[in-house]
Amino acid sequence: MKKILLIILIFLGILIFLLLYTNLWSPSWNPFRPAPQIVLAKMALKMKNTKAFYIEGLIQTKENKKGRYHPWRKEEEPEETFSKTDSELKFNFGIDRKAKGDPDFSLGLEGKTHKENKYGWRKEPRIFDSSNSVKFKKVKDNFYLLADVSGEPLPENQWIRIEQDRLGELLVFLITEGRDVGLEIQIPKEKQEELIEIIIKKFIGAKFYKIEKELPDERINGKMAYHYLISLDKREIKKLSSDILSEVAEWLVECMSFSPQTSTEFYFPSEEYFLAPSFYLIELNLALQQGIEDLFEKLQGVDVEIWIGKKDNYLYRIRLKKERDLVDYYEKNQHSLAREDILEADISVLADVHFSKFNELPEITPPSEYINLGEIIQWRQ
Amino acid sequence: MEAIKYIGLVILVFICIVLFLGKEKLFGVSKETRKKRVLQFLIVVLCLVLGGLLILAWNYWNYQRNLSLCQDKCFSTSEGWKFSDPDIPLIEMTFPTQEKCIEFCSSFLRDLQKEEWKSIDLKSLY
Q: In what order do the strands lie in the sheet with A315-325?
């Protein structure tokens, strides 16, 4: 009897060893399981070489705050205050890298914001709604843009064609709002490739994340995937974003020049416009740094889940889901003379990005109707 | 180091199982028989330890082989041990110890030698 038991135990041991070794049974403590760093490195190489893929994403943030405002005059009753912000950004991106270094792609962005607030000194609540959308495509040697963004000088609901080598003209148009001030930006194909390289190089070796936990494997799109929890490093992300923006500013200045005919006539405006993109980027950088700081402080750290295919090494999904109570945050950051008690405050963030259609060449076609950027520039002048 | 942990665990589990199943065989028998059984048990444990040492030696040899493969790809920096290979410029990683860096480098490079990676261009950045 004991011999049989021993044989069964040895047999079970061998079976467990084989299951673990072949990764058929792969709990997080399996010593034969590949290290997450290897899985991530292989994923980066695999994604780099994927001919085509499609990304669909949603970013939602909801923030609520309720308070009680105490007027200066003691005879006045305290007033209820509130602020509420709901914003949503949907995006999709498809890429077809049939020609190396010169892909076709299509990007769609759709954003909505709803804000409501009422403070003690105002009796009626204020409501603010906005919605913007942008579609951007590259097909062969042309870019196509359809922008419905408030405050931009581009015509609404109208596709605009920009030849690949004349992308700089679009930037000039957006900066100068169509005025001829003698500013020229030349971004030929080589310069566009240089920018992509600059950005990728900044990511290489950056330690902006840390693998916190190996979560149980999950089936995604019918395939088994490694599932990791990754925490983002606030300091490194701030440094990375700042470095990228300053490199982009430097790159942009290299692409800019004055037109000799108009530079004297428009000397002051030209100089102003010459510096404008760099200032925009500095301003954007400051806003970004503050945004990152606020997000990390409000969420008390940012943890992201990722799913990577076990067999094919593709990145399948990235998700950030967090809800936090913000009463302490607002009390800590409130001005010492503030006359408001925070009653309730919370934030919820959801970012969910799905990757699919690997190596299925998407149909990225040019729009049937469009106008050339040159026509708009002529019309504006 | 990881291997020592696992080998030690296997030997310990074996000793526990055998002691649990064979405890009655040591009682109520003559001194000679008991001595003989204990000796037999110790021989098996010794075999296991020798097996473990063999595995450790193989592990050490493997580590030396990996070290020669990865010595020029893992180097010390102020932030730790950095993996960098000019043939795979997209991947750069930093590890707290040289051992971890060599471990990553060898198994990563071994994986990339498999057939499925042969057609993939590792040298380009994008």
A: A209-220, A223-232, A303-309, A315-325, A340-356, A52-69, A79-96, A104-118, A126-139, A142-148, A160-163, A371-372
Closest by Cα among A313, A223, A316, A235 to A36: A313
* Cβ contact B125–A34 (<8 Å): no
ipTM over 0.95: no
String of DSSP letters for A93-143:
EEEE-SSTT--EEEEEEEEEEEEEEE-TT-SSPEEEEEEEEEEEEEETTEE
Contact present, A325 and A345 (Cβ < 8 Å): yes
Q: Answer yes or no: do A38 and B104 touch at CB < 8 A.
A: yes
- B88 Cβ under 8 Å from any chain A Cβ: yes
Q: Which of A281, A282, A277, A285 is nearest to A255 (CA)?
A: A277
Cβ contacts of A263 within 8 Å, gap of 6 or more: A182, A270
d(C-alpha A156, C-alpha A153), whole Å = 9
Q: pLDDT (tens digit, 9 = 90+) per residue, A19-43? A: 888 877 878 788 888 999 999 999 9
Q: Which residues of A touch B9 (CB under 8 A)?
A: none
User: Which residues in B lie closer than 8 A to residue A101 (C-beta atoms)?
Assistant: 126
A185 residue type, one letter: I
Q: Are A177 and A195 in contact (CB under 8 A)?
A: no
Instruction: Check B120 against A34: CB less than 8 A apart.
Output: no
Q: Report the predicted TM-score, pTM, of the whole model to 2 decimal places.
A: 0.83
